[in-house]
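ok so dumb question maybe but i'm new to this and my supervisor (M.) told me to 'just get the structure for Alpha-catulin' and walked off. so i did the thing. is this what she meant?? sequence i used:
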Amino acid sequence: MASSPCGSSNFDCGLEIKTRSVEQTLIPLVSQITTLINHKDKPKKSEKTLCAIQRVGQAVSAAVGRFVSVGEAIATENEELKEEMGLACLEARRAGNAIAQLTEVSSLEQPESDGRGTVFSDRTGMVRAARMLLSSVTKVLVLADRIVIKQIITSRNKVLLTLDQLERVTTFQEFVQIFSQFGNEMVEFAHLTGDRQNDLKDEKKKARMAAARAVLEKCTMMLLTASKTCLRHPDCESARINKDAVFHRMRYALEQVIEIVTDSRPAGEAQSVLPASLYTGIKDFKGKVESLRDSLYHVPVESLSAQLEALVEQMEDFTDSAYTHHEQREGLLQLCSLARQDTHALIAAWTQAQSAKAKEAPEEVELAILKTCQSVGELRKELQKIAVGRATELLKHHSEHLALQALKAAGGEGNLEAVAEYARTLSEQKEQLVETCRLLCHVSGTEPLEITCIHAEETFHVIGPQIVSAAQTLALHPSSKIAKENLDVFCEAWESQLCDMALLLREISDVFDGRRGDKKAYLSLPRPGKHSTNLKTAKAGKLDSEEQSTIAKLGLELRLLTSDVDSEVERWEDQEHDIARQSQSISSMAYSMYLFTRGEGLLKTTLDLFHQAEMLSEQGLQLCSHLHTFSTQLLDEEKGVILSETEKLAASCQQLQMGAKTPVQGKSATFQKVESSIQNTKGVMTVVVFLLPVCNKLLRKSKSERSSLESPQNWRDKQLPTAVREDAVNGKSSNGFGVKSLEQHMASLTFLESK
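this is what came out, is it supposed to look like this??
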């Protein structure tokens, strides 16, 4: 939805709606009330029209009554909400009764007989009742939403308490016991915050939440090995530094989550504002230039020159970088000079038009506007080319992770001098990556992607020194298996961030090319510990040039299928729908497999490819689960089509999974397995390409034919966490009230088609 249902001028409820579930719950009520107020006021009303209006009024009143009962139950269970919730429920009940009275048939047939107002004679009264109802219902929903926030805060507090205990332990036995509790609490926190992240309307908050949750996920494994290392070597300073950094980062990420959820900042801190990016600056500049066409006398054109100079100054991140090639620097400076010339020419043409008192922009001004927009457009393209090119080069250069391997080897040999030498190399790589993330932020194109770039920059900045301290610890204790394991975990985190950066790079390119405007949540990254058995028993290999040539056609066919999936997902009105999101994730993994056939991308060995194929098959089976859920909302004939294709998809996924897990020996057999994996992935993608438009069509059809009041509940599987009682937080079943209960009652309303 483009705007909140309570955000219109007619029904301004005065409350900010921050989650999709609350917004979607209000849509049915808005539809009903809009129908009542916008009916055609004909002199003669048919009996059918009068009865239909009464049915709507009664339905609204009855649903509000049930809704209020749920709200009152919530107030009983939550003392801190009792007074506010009680008042909101009372207002809602009054408004519902007023609407029922205004739509009563006896009054509608003889509107003037007893002096009572009706929906026809007292439109002002109906609008007043409608406004009160929307305001009070929204307030009840927002108050109920506070319970979800309370659950997250409570969960965070438990995690913090256990984190403090973990930091103070002195024995392995105590650590194992407390860490087990900590792991369970982190799982609960991850579920609660994951649901909240998906429910947030604000894309910037979503991106910030995703970044904070990613830190917590990666730091959990780091905390385990860093703490074990510190316990085994309690007098080692580098081990202590390593451990302290992990605890500090986890606490910071936990606080970030709470800031996002509660929409607050620590005392004394100003609201965080993203640094201005060149993409945004150039977009604003072009917008001001183009506005001269319509407001020749209202735009202070002299400010254009100052705005352009500010952009040129920002470009110093590119031109002053030691890693920018000389030719690129010269090219940028020439484009800046051209943009200056065109801007000065525009100002001159505009000044002349004003002197001539022209009523509209003359041809000279129009031409100058076009030239200025073209020159800054070329400047933006060059900036994007430099940033993406730099990132691509870095990822390719560091794909072998030579510095990490050298640090591991030096640490294992106990060679502190070599560790110091390779630490300097890693530090230089870190600075390159940090600077490149900064450049990508300038050209990312959307605020969520800018936030992701900043997160990547911070991650490289923090993990680099942590790897060094872990390597120093290993060098001091070269025979320590725990110290070696700890270094491995931090190196894996670095490699994982490089993978994330490659996905980020693709998303930025998609935005620039106009293929995708929002950041997607990719599910393709493997989780620590998963598939570890296969990884250890299989032997990794690479395709030679002849094998790449042989498999090139298959790879190209797979690439075309990924483009088809991306195109189909773009056509979905709700691209966050489970089916669309899961399909996009599968497409992302398939694209990585295509890059492997070209000898590019992050999948370097056949082992990487088989692992990716296994992950893709799992995502495909998850998509089958979403499709089964979707089919329960369809008619028999439509359901049959979806289930038939779902069976094909499941069979293709199982075939891909079995093939990926089957062990092979020898070069020829390995290549046949590669070929089979690509072929089976094509089979999966072919079914997905067929299903996407069919599901999209059926979804739209259902939304138009079904009651608009039932659709929000039926089509969304994941809502706000429903539990209110403590036992629900602990994973037990509960009949407690929550936002979903409210949604279910609101969804019971029936829809009146406009007459």
